[in-house]
């Protein structure tokens, strides 16, 4: 076995009785959407968001895994190149070579780095490789590279890497280099707990969880009394926390206060996932709707991994609701919003969505997403001090087609930087002392020092060109209701 | 598609087999008795059955010493299988390239594989 860092290329080809431009046009179109792993993209141009589905079972049954990326190079009639970060970082190229009159050789090539092979082996049950003992101080980052959450977690691992690289470039923590261990929880709480236990065994001082509340809870329980600090770095419903289990990120009640104002009484339909996140968010929503003088006409809760929303959308339409709250996440939110758009829901109701980051929005696509609103603590276009420089460093490190930086991945970056400062100040203190210092140290507004416990929110609306910020809600004014602008 | 690969992906869904692989990953080479002691939910006979499947699918290798058998991870075999899997799904993807609306017919050229690895 080659243990050096390497990329392996796998290729396959076929000749079709079509001119190159005709064969090229079959990529990503609804008619031939299934030919290259069901490729879906809303435009065939550089930067366009692409999703493909790899079958994991050899007979093509079973759920498969989504490859999420962007078109990096497009030469009409000749070449398509996809750069992807999920479930591993790699590249997929399709070449169209003329092979005689109205014949084209279509050649598909996949570049799979060592980490991609490790991901495949790990998915089949083999343990991840053990990092060498290099004396570095270890931190763990659990993100979601596969399953429903892969859509919103696309840049989380990259942002964790960027933070750790910056900490090391600035001299490390208390004189030691920091080493990041990463793992994919596959949107599965049990898998998250398993990865966290491995990180604790390998000596990680803290584990940052960029995943669902279900995964966070499982990690928190598994690492209780191990002396490892657990930090939830994404939007969540709040609730139980302890000095060794810190929960950062936006809270539904603050988002809803920013999104629902005093307006004519509205009929609401709540759509969410059947687990603790949506339970908490919908409880907050019922209170917010009542305060605004509206009422909840219906609610649907679906399991993570739902792809067919026909019945749910029918219920939404039958309810006569003119407002929809979605607390769906990742691929489920993508599928729901796309179905709403084709079913004519947009003409009947306005929708607010709590986990609508730039990546989720890009996968919904501008046709289906226009008009959706959300409120989050970070958008790429925010004028936060230090944001332009952060984005420049990110593009510099990961290239022009790296996935968007989002509230969810920026939170990961922030949390690691803030924890590194706490650890640097008192490296020998225990996890509880670090957790308390992490929660107390917040106060700023600049990138790298944002208040993650009670973040200032921005209300944004989706348009043809992405999310446009329409209002800023400071942490202080979150106590008041603010208008949902018409 | 060969049967060997089918079995490999059966293993994927089986938590007992995952547990066996995790135990071997942490402790290296172990006997059936050692493994059964670590995988508490099932008996020795069941562990043996799973080990046979894992060995057939190339994920685990067996070493005999006297009357005892010892098992360890076969990472090389697993990597080989991962590439068989990737090649299989790419071949199927180009095989699924329909020209749409009955325009033209396609002729498969069979799989083409680029040689070896390149460092990068």
TrEMBL record, chain A:
Q: Which UniProt keywords apply?
A: Amino-acid transport, Signal, Transport
Which domain of life, per UniProt?
Bacteria
Provide an example Pfam family for this protein. Peripla_BP_6
Enumerate the spans annotated as Leucine-binding protein domain.
137-432
Q: Which residues form the signal peptide?
A: none
The family assignment reads: Belongs to the leucine-binding protein family.
Q: Identify the PANTHER family for this entry.
A: ALIPHATIC AMIDASE EXPRESSION-REGULATING PROTEIN, PTHR47628
- Name the UniProt record assigns to this protein: Leucine-binding protein domain-containing protein
Source organism per UniProt = Actinomycetospora chlora
Automatic annotation (TrEMBL), chain B:
Q: Which domain of life is it from?
A: Bacteria
Compositional bias annotation for Basic and acidic residues = 111-120
Q: Which residues form the HTH arsR-type domain?
A: 1-101
Which SMART domains does this UniProt record tie to the protein? Answer: HTH_ARSR
| UniProt region (Disordered), positions on chain | 97-120
| Gene3D superfamilies hit by this protein | Winged helix-like DNA-binding domain superfamily/Winged helix DNA-binding domain
Q: Which UniProt keywords apply?
A: DNA-binding, Transcription, Transcription regulation
NCBIfam families registered for this protein in UniProt: HTH_metalloreg (NF033788)
Which PANTHER family does this UniProt record tie to the protein?
A: ARSENICAL RESISTANCE OPERON REPRESSOR ARSR-RELATED
Report what the protein is called. HTH arsR-type domain-containing protein
Q: Which organism does this sequence originate in?
A: Actinomycetospora chlora
State the organism's lineage. Answer: Bacteria, Bacillati, Actinomycetota, Actinomycetes, Pseudonocardiales
């Amino acid at each position: 076995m080659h243990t050096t860092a390497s990329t392996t290329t796998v290729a396959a080809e076929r000749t079709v009785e079509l001119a190159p431009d005709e064969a090229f046009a079959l990529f990503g179109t609804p008619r031939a959407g299934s030919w290259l792993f069901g490729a879906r993209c809303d435009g065939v141009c550089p930067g366009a968001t692409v999703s493909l589905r790899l079958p994991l079972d050899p007979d093509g049954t079973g759920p498969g895994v989504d490859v999420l990326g962007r078109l990096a190079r497009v030469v009409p009639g000749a070449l398509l190149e996809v750069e992807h970060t999920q479930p591993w970082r790699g590249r997929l190229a399709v070449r169209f070579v003329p092979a005689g009159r109205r014949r084209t050789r279509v050649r598909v090539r996949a570049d799979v780095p060592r980490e991609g092979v490790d991901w495949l082996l790990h998915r089949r049950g083999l343990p991840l490789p053990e990092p060498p003992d290099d004396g570095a101080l270890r931190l763990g980052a659990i993100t979601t590279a596969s399953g429903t959450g892969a859509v919103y977690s696309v840049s989380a691992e990259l942002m964790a890497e960027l933070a750790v690289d910056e900490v090391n470039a600035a001299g490390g923590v208390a004189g030691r280099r920091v080493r990041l261990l990463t793992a994919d929880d596959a949107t599965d709480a049990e898998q998250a707990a398993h990865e966290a236990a491995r990180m604790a065994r390998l000596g990680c001082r803290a584990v940052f969880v960029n995943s669902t509340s279900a995964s966070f809870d499982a990690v928190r329980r598994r690492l209780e009394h191990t002396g490892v600090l657990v930090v939830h770095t994404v939007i969540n419903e709040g609730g139980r926390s302890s000095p060794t289990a810190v929960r950062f990120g936006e809270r539904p009640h603050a988002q809803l206060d920013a999104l629902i104002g005093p307006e004519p009484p509205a009929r609401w339909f709540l759509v969410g996932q059947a687990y603790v996140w949506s339970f908490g968010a919908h409880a907050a929503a019922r209170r917010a709707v009542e305060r605004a003088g509206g009422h909840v006409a219906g609610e649907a809760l679906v399991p993570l991994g739902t792809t067919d929303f026909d019945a749910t959308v029918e219920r939404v339409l039958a309810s006569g609701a003119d407002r929809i709250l979605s607390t769906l996440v990742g691929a489920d939110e993508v599928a729901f919003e796309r179905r709403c758009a084709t079913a004519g829901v947009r003409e009947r109701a306005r929708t607010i969505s709590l986990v609508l980051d730039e990546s989720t929005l890009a996968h919904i696509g501008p046709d289906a997403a226009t008009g959706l609103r959300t409120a989050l603590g970070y958008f790429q276009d925010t004028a936060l001090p230090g944001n332009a420089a952060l984005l420049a460093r990110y593009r510099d490190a990961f290239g022009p087609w790296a996935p968007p930086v989002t509230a969810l991945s920026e939170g990961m970056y922030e949390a690691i930087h803030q924890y590194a400062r706490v650890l640097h100040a008192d490296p020998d203190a225990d996890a509880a002392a670090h957790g308390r210092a992490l929660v107390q140290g917040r106060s700023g507004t600049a990138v790298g020092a944002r208040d993650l416990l009670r973040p200032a929110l921005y209300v944004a609306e989706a348009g043809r060109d992405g999310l446009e910020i329409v209002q800023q809600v400071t942490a202080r004014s979150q106590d008041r209701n603010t208008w949902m602008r018409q | 598609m060969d049967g060997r690969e089918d079995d490999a992906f059966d293993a994927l869904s089986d938590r007992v087999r995952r547990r066996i692989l995790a135990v071997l990953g942490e402790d290296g080479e172990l006997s059936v008795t050692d493994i059964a002691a670590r995988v508490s939910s099932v008996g020795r006979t069941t562990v043996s059955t799973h080990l046979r499947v894992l060995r057939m699918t190339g994920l685990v290798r067996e070493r005999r010493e006297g009357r005892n058998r010892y098992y360890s991870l076969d990472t090389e075999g697993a990597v080989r299988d991962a590439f068989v899997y990737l090649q299989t799904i790419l071949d199927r993807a180009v095989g699924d390239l329909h020209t749409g609306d009955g325009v033209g017919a396609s002729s498969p050229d069979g799989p083409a594989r680029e040689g070896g690895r390149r460092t990068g």
